[in-house]
Design a protein that fits this description.
The protein is mainly α. Helix content is about 60%, strand content about 5%. It contains 17 helices and five strands. The chain has helices at about 5-10, 30-40, 45-65, 75-85, 85-90, 100-120, 125-140, 140-155, 160-185, 190-200, 210-215, 235-255, 260-280, 290-305, 315-360, 375-380, 395-405, and strands at about 370, 385, 410-415, 425-430, 435-440. Strands 2-1-3-5-4 form a five-stranded mixed sheet. Helix 6 packs antiparallel against helix 7 (about 125-140). The radius of gyration is 24 Å and the shape is globular.
């Protein structure tokens, strides 16, 4: 499966094979640094997928190791299997996206926090808290804050100063780059947060529960407007059962006098899910990955309580029902996964086909694309991407026109759209359902040469060769 829209943004920041795409205010550099060991020297998508798949599996294993001693091994293994078998996890684990790694960091942070709270003399757990909080903030600073709110409150109320310092230190270490960048590029932290809110449609009280429900059928993004019927109840049954099993896990923990071990992850799962359920008006299933990871362990504990008596004997009827339920759940998850992968693979092949056609029309690196889906198509073409409006605005119309005098420039118009005014006299071409207008070349041989000599397919000059595009 080729790289998706967001992946092209993150990967382009560290690869030498294509110019860096516009990096909007909500994004953090963690994913780009995560993929740098491969993307910095290789353009192979297959190699990147294998690297991320192995790394994500190792990350989940190490995160669950942090919970050893808090729950039986069978509970941790079951919790890991429940989280790993979700189509959302299988789909995004091998992708260059941040949410899965926030989930791993959340598991590390909460598990080590609980261990350090029960064994104050253990330094390894404290360093685990620092590492987990830093990983989350490195990937998505705002999510890191939402996850750690219950931990910070608990540490403050119980006067666990070392834990409080470990949490604060981890958040600061992981989020420092994001904060520094806020002052360098946006004029301050509050200004960057305001811009991030604007890009996300304005944060405030909203209701996205129904949007999240619609996204469970395999929609990577359910946004403006998020319409259509929810998936079949068979597909969404696990989502409604999740809070019920989590509540049962809490009841089991209270009876066993280990309330904190279950209540703390449930509280962190709740706080990290709240903004995505009640503070934005769109949804993506990956947004709730940290919540799913934190809920997995209490849910697994509840399932083991259902199938085994306190004395260790099996409950035959309950065991059969749980086994059938899990088998059906796995079948549903894999069905949705295959459907989602097929659909996304087709759309990304379309971008590759458009890129190939653009190369044939003389739009080769160094070059500039603007308009509909310019960012991913530009990545596949090896061009810079520029937009004169919208959330990814990073270039002005005069700059586009000026750039067209020096290098190949193409304006992309989506289905049903109209070409921008500055491109209406440019040469039109129809590629699938897109209209591509290519600027006539007026530059001299010393500036860029002819359209066909600007570069070769699959190569790109350094960032900025396509003109004054702001990254």
């Amino acid at each position: 499966m080729g790289l998706g829209w967001d992946e092209t943004v993150y990967v382009s920041q560290v690869t030498a094979h294509t110019p860096a795409a516009f990096f909007s205010a909500p994004r953090s550099r963690g994913v780009s640094l995560l993929v740098a060991p491969v993307a910095s020297w290789s353009s192979s998508t297959e190699l990147l997928r294998i690297y991320l798949a192995l790394l994500s599996g190792l990350g989940l294993y190490l995160a669950l190791r942090c919970w050893r001693g808090l729950f039986p091994v069978r509970v941790l293994a079951t919790g890991g299997a429940l989280f790993a078998s979700l189509w959302i996890t299988l789909f995004y684990g091998p992708q260059a996206m941040p949410n899965y790694w926030v989930a791993v960091g959340a598991l590390v942070t909460v598990g080590c926090f609980l261990r350090a709270r029960e064994r104050p003399s253990g330094r390894a757990a404290l360093w685990g808290v620092v590492a987990g909080a830093a990983l989350m903030a490195w990937m998505r600073p705002t999510d890191a804050v939402w996850v750690t709110v219950p931990l910070l409150v608990l540490a403050l109320l119980r006067r666990h100063w070392t834990l409080l310092l470990a949490l604060a230190g981890g958040l600061a270490a992981g989020g420092a780059e994001w904060v520094v960048e806020a002052y360098v590029w946006y004029g301050g932290l509050l200004e960057r947060m305001a811009e991030a809110s604007r890009v996300q449609g304005g944060l405030g009280w909203g209701f996205a529960v129904d949007d999240q429900l619609r996204s469970l059928g395999g929609r990577a993004l359910c946004r403006w407007p998020c319409t259509g019927s929810p998936p079949h109840p068979v597909v969404t049954a696990w989502w409604f059962l999740l809070p019920v099993l989590a509540a049962l896990g809490l009841a089991v923990a209270v009876r066993a006098r280990r309330t904190a071990r279950t209540l703390v992850p449930l509280a962190c799962a709740t706080t990290v899910a709240l903004p995505y359920l009640f503070m934005i008006d769109y949804a993506a299933p990956r947004f709730l990955q940290p919540a799913y990871a934190l809920l997995a362990v209490p849910v697994a504990d509840a399932l083991w309580h259902l199938v085994k008596r306190p004395g260790g004997r099996w409950r035959p009827l309950a065991t059969t029902l749980v086994a059938l339920g899990l088998a059906g759940h796995l079948a549903v998850q894999l069905t949705v996964l295959v459907f989602t992968v097929d659909r996304n693979t087709d759309s990304r092949r379309d971008w590759a086909r458009v890129a190939g056609t653009l190369h044939g029309l003389g739009v080769r690196p160094p070059c500039l694309l603007t308009g509909h889906e310019a960012i991913p198509i530009a990545y596949y073409t090896g061009c810079s991407a520029g937009n004169t409006s919208g959330n990814n605005e990073n270039i002005t119309v005069p700059e586009v026109v000026d750039t067209a005098r020096r290098i190949p420039v193409a304006a992309i118009t989506g289905p049903g759209g109209t070409p921008p005014g500055y491109a209406r006299t440019w040469t039109p071409h129809r590629i699938t359902d897109l209209e591509i207008r290519i600027a006539p070349r007026t530059g001299t041989a010393g500036s860029a040469g002819t359209a066909g000599s600007a570069g070769t397919a699959g190569t790109a000059g350094p960032v900025g060769t396509a003109g004054p595009v702001r990254n």
